[in-house]
Design brief:
InterPro entries: Azg-like (IPR045018), Azg-like_bact_archaea (IPR026033), NCS2 (IPR006043). By secondary structure, this protein is mainly alpha-helical. It is about 65% helix and about 5% strand. A two-stranded antiparallel ribbon has the order 1-4. The termini are far apart.
Length: about 450
């Protein structure tokens, strides 16, 4: 009779990757600790669109579990997946609150993106598109999203407010809600500086306790444990009325673009740290990993949550020794346990999760060091991408402006050969989108 250890060895190649079941289980717990803030942030953020917070909570967890089952059993890689930061902000603040679409419209765009990704994964198109976009814009998108998320967090916390005279200004800092935000942020920053795993989660917990003490938040009237909230208010609510429009293409492409770079970049970075990259610089099983990511996105859209993607926090589990898909399965187990803890997650105040957004914003701006600032055909489009996202309050506009300006500057300086055919096509599409109101169509 086959022992449990031999079954795990045969399934996950533990010895080959110099690990064991205990290490993999603890690595999954570490990954969960560092990314579990998404179970608070995502329902809070998407609920601003009118979506049911409990339904989003359940949808986020179930979609994450399914994606991690594929990642663990199909790809055998130590990566965790859930609703991606930046993509959920674009979903909420750009597509719904800024562009005025219903949240079901945004879910439809996410669903279509996931279907396209599944097709692209079979034909290795994702990697081909990724290589066609200049590195300066790839880095700028990450930085711009980081700035955008930071602004979202500051506004959500009430630290930055609307002001008719100056557009935005500093809010009331000497208040109990602001104190919760400041303390949460400082705890996260301090623990991050000390390399404490789960720093964001601990900061959220500290902020929640302080909010309860100050009366900013209140304990639920019932039990702290319950059955998962129903999916029915948010599941299978896709909207098919405006498929063939510039807006739908723009929204879907932005989800596609950001998810593409986020996933491929995260897989490459974390796999390198785990020593899973082969001598040719490739990640064995990357096609299966990308397919797992795409399946998670499709399932998530159907259930009622924003784009599911591979989390960079997977690096924390890798740092703790995670090397196989057993780490992903372990993380999925803790997500499952969280299904029954919605009353606990529901008492977390917006000020605590806003602090997490600011810290994630910080983490995302690190690629700015890789942008060639002395080459203005590279730095100007990158800069426009970065500043347009927060100032126009739109990730999509930042990407559009960056691509158009990149092509214009390269061509105008006689360096058009540096621009890929894909970039020319995308720049043309986005230019037509801006010119649409004055074109005789």
């Amino acid at each position: 009779m086959e022992t449990n250890s031999s079954f795990l060895e045969r399934t996950f190649s533990l010895n080959e990757r110099k690990t064991n079941a205990k290490t993999e289980f603890l690595a999954g717990l570490t990954t969960f600790m560092t990314m579990s803030y998404i179970l608070v942030v995502n329902p809070n953020m998407l609920s601003e669109t009118g979506m049911d917070k409990g339904g989003v909570f359940t949808a986020t967890i179930v979609a994450s579990i399914i994606a991690m089952l594929f990642m663990g059993l199909f790809a055998n890689l130590p990566f965790a997946l859930s609703a991606g930061m930046g993509l959920n902000a674009f979903f909420t603040y750009t597509v719904v609150l800024s562009m005025g679409h219903d949240w079901s419209y945004a879910l439809t765009a996410v669903f279509l993106e996931g279907i396209i990704f599944i097709v692209m994964s079979f034909f290795n198109i994702r990697e081909a598109i990724f290589t066609s976009i200049p590195m300066s814009l790839k880095n700028a998108v990450s930085v711009g999203i980081g700035l955008f998320i930071t602004l979202v967090g500051l506004i959500s916390a009430g630290v930055i407010v609307n002001n008719d005279a100056t557009l935005i200004s500093l809010g009331e800092i000497a208040s109990r809600p602001s104190l919760v935000f400041i303390v949460s942020l400082m705890v996260m920053a301090l623990l991050t500086a000390k390399n404490v795993k789960g720093a964001l989660l601990y900061g959220i917990i500290t902020g929640t306790v302080l909010a309860l003490i100050l009366g900013v938040s209140h304990l639920p009237g019932g039990m702290l444990f319950s059955l998962p909230p129903s999916l029915s208010p948010v599941a299978f609510k896709l909207h098919w009325g405006d498929l063939f429009t510039f807006d739908m293409f723009s929204v879907m492409f932005t989800f596609l673009f950001v998810d593409l770079f986020d996933t491929v970049g995260t897989l490459t970075g974390v796999a390198t740290k785990a020593g899973l990259i082969d001598e040719d610089g490739n990640l064995p099983g990357v096609g299966r990993a990308l397919l797992s990511d795409a399946i998670g996105t499709v399932v998530g859209a159907l259930l009622g949550t924003s784009t599911v993607t591979t989390f960079v926090e997977s690096a924390s589990g890798v740092a703790d020794g995670g090397r196989t898909g057993l780490t992903s399965l372990s993380c999925a187990f803790f997500f499952f346990v969280s299904l029954f803890l919605f009353p606990i997650f529901s008492i977390v105040p917006a000020q605590a999760t806003s602090a997490a957004l600011v810290m994630v914003g910080l983490f995302m701006i690190s690629p700015i060091n890789q942008i060639k600032l002395d080459d203005y055909t590279e730095s100007v489009p990158a800069f426009l991408t970065m500043v347009t996202m927060p100032f126009a309050y739109s990730i999509a506009e930042g990407i559009s402006v960056g691509m158009i300006s990149y092509v214009i500057l390269k061509v105008a300086t006689g360096r058009g050969k540096e621009v890929s055919p894909v970039m020319y096509l995308l720049a043309l599409i986005f230019t037509l989108r801006y010119l649409r109101p004055i074109l005789p169509l």
